[in-house]
Design brief:
By secondary structure, this protein is α/β, with parallel strands linked by helices. The protein has a single domain (about 40-415), classed as Alkaline Phosphatase, subunit A. The protein is about 30% helix and about 15% strand. It has helices at about 5-15, 25-35, 55, 65-70, 105, 125-135, 145-155, 205-210, 215-220, 220-235, 255-270, 295-315, 385-395; strands at about 40-50, 60, 85-90, 95, 110-120, 165-170, 185, 195, 275-280, 320-325, 345-350, 360, 380-385. The strands form two sheets. Strands 1, 5, 6, 7, 8, 9, 10, 11, 12 and 13 form a ten-stranded mixed beta sheet that branches. The protein is globular and about 60 Å long. It starts with a helix and ends in a 27-residue tail after the last helix.
């Protein structure tokens, strides 16, 4: 094949919309195997980067100490019939009023909460704490891979797919580093597919042609082959043509778009098992607000996106678990700028058909001065690794004996109980 002819093939053939009839045989077999095995369980992990204020997100309105520590930014105690107060959950905890769209999930026992959850490491550095949470090794910076990558490697699958693990964004996050089959994708409309570590990110629109210029062994192994397979599967499934369910509208902005893309991939049946998305804007040192303000606006968008995802997926949510996380919480006391500083314990959400919902899980340590961590923060009573391990083993099927968290023994008796057995 001459150079001009090959380039014409690449641009006109390889980038054309592919039908199953034009797919390679191994991809056809993979697609049929996935259909035959039924819908896989999917984990959607969401990282709230910047340390969301869990005490405003899940309000301990039964604690007098909460109101004493936050005279300007505390969320008002629940008042029946009022929409600008905390939404009571169990007489002690309540949701921020901006999270009102999530209350039906709680009532249906499809939303579980874990409070006072976090890392045993006391770092208040965003960078370090995020690294520890994504690597799953608090206090250890030398860990080469992420805990979700280890979990994926530990699970055998009958659904060979280049879309087992997908991160939404331009590069793989720390949590999926070390998993050679994980990919990052910006948008199914643009086919910006990236594989491998951040340093080897490939824009598929530019990189597809260059891969054909590699030798055959390079094309059939490692990064090149993974990108090639992903593009073929993505174009064959054509998830960009899958519209949200009638009446579903995702909020504008990157987070809403990322969840919409995840829903497209799930509905397209490309074999997705783990999806990762992050959302920033939670570092509220100044003018945090209470029932209204900067934090309230972020929480409202967060809730709207989760509701849109749930409605879009419909019955598929029975096989989906959404897990939220944030590197640490914020100080119990408000600061002089009517905001909060870097803290310790936090609140995390588990949403889905298998959630043991309608409960705030974990032991509540209290907010009186003598109960605080280092005299200033919500103490951690649930190690985040116990929560993540429960989701990984009970939902994804990761063996309890797998090296999910080096140096930490996975013990089901320490699970917070967020999933139904």
């Amino acid at each position: 094949m001459g150079e001009a002819t090959r380039r014409s093939f690449i641009k006109g053939g390889a980038l054309a919309l592919l039908s199953f009839g034009s797919m390679p045989r191994f991809l056809v077999r993979a697609a049929h195997a996935s259909v035959a095995a039924g819908p896989p369980r999917v984990l959607i992990a969401i990282f709230q980067r910047g340390a969301v204020d869990g005490l405003s997100m899940v309000v301990p309105h039964g604690e007098a100490a909460y109101y004493a520590a936050r005279p300007g930014i505390a969320i008002a105690r629940p008042v029946a019939g009022k929409s600008d107060t905390a939404i009571d959950l169990d007489g002690h905890f309540g949701l921020h009023p901006a999270l009102a769209p999530l209350k039906p999930f709680w009532d249906a026992r499809r939303l579980a909460l874990v409070h006072a959850c976090g890392s045993p490491d006391s770092s208040r550095s965003h960078f370090d704490a995020q690294d520890y949470m994504e690597s799953g090794t608090p206090g250890v910076k030398s860990t080469p891979d992420g805990w979700l990558a280890r979990g994926i490697r530990a699970t055998a699958t009958g659904r060979p797919s280049p879309f087992r693990a997908v991160a939404m964004g331009p590069r793989l996050p720390r949590i999926l580093s070390g998993e050679p089959d994980a990919i990052a994708i910006g948008s199914v409309k643009d086919f910006d597919v990236a594989v491998g570590p951040a340093s080897s990110t490939i824009d598929a629109r530019r990189g597809f042609e260059s891969m054909y210029e590699q030798t055959v062994p390079d094309l059939l192994h490692g990064t090149g082959r993974g990108t090639f397979e992903a593009i073929k599967v993505l174009r064959a499934a054509n998830p960009a043509q899958i519209a949200p369910a009638p009446g579903v509208e995702y909020p504008k902005g990157p987070f809403g778009e990322r969840l919409a893309t995840i829903a497209q991939l799930i509905k397209a049946g490309v074999g997705l098992e783990v999806a990762f998305a992050d959302v920033g804007g939670w570092d509220t040192h100044v003018a945090q607000g209470n029932e209204q303000g900067v934090l309230a606006a972020r929480l409202a968008q967060f809730a709207e996106a989760l509701v849109a995802l749930d409605r879009d997926l419909g019955d598929r949510m029975e096989n989906v678990v959404v897990l939220t996380m944030s590197e640490f919480g914020r100080t119990v006391r408000e600061n002089g700028n009517r905001g909060t500083d870097h803290g310790h314990g936090n609140a995390m959400f588990v949403l889905g058909g298998r959630a043991s919902g309608g409960r705030v899980h974990g032991r509540w340590p209290g907010l009186r001065p003598e109960q605080l961590f280092e005299g200033r923060d919500l103490a951690v009573t649930t190690d985040f690794r116990s929560l993540f391990a429960e989701v990984a083993t009970r939902h994804l099927g990761v063996p309890i004996t797998a090296p999910l968290f080096p140096g930490f023994a996975v013990d089901p008796t320490r699970y917070p109980g967020v999933l139904r057995a």
